[in-house]
Amino acid sequence: MPLLERRAAATVTLLAALACGDAAFAHEPRLGPKRSRGGPDAPLGERFELSPMLGFQFGGQFSDVGADDDRVSLQDVAIDDSVSYGLTADIYLGPETRLALSYSRQPTEIDAAELPEEFAGTSGGIDLDIDYYHLGGVYEWSAKETRGRPFVFSSLGLTRFVPGGGFESDSRFSLGFGGGGKFPVSERVGIRVQGQLLFTFVDSDGQVFCQGGGSGARCLVFVESGSLYQIGLSIGLDFGF
User: Whole-angstrom Cα distance, residue 145 to residue 8?
Assistant: First the structure.
């Protein structure tokens, strides 16, 4: 074979080899960042979301059993409706499920028709902070054709009552149920709106908001009802991480 033909054949063979190599490389899986846990349907944060919330809380009333020589003579003690605020963290578990951690506080007052002289300085009511510490689960629907993502949730935890006027704090077991929607405004920021119903279990024939201890304790309320319920409505920003 003439030298020119041998060189042409070698060139064709080399080009063919390079073409085959490029085709094989194109079908190789390319290295890159590991796919996140969130997947394509994960909203905002693919690992967790943090939501500072501001809202309004309604309801709440203790039914007092009455008075004897050792009890304050009150009928019902109502909790004023007031602003509330808090923080919620949703941790991604799956495309539609989240683990939720939440804290909220309602600075309010408890009203009483008659405050006895021994609790002087509390005219019109007694300052009260109500704190909720809850752990729960969230089910979130994927709404690909709309901007909103509806969700429902349930939670359990503790309600802590922190009264003013020298009364002692008290903690009780509580449950929460609610729902709402998340509305993204950018890739990592959205608006969250929600409503919830909160149940706090209070022992029947128990007492709350006491001063002093032992046999000399004076309590504002001796409870007849076994539960306290409140309704909360709130809105906040939703930050995804």
Answer: 59
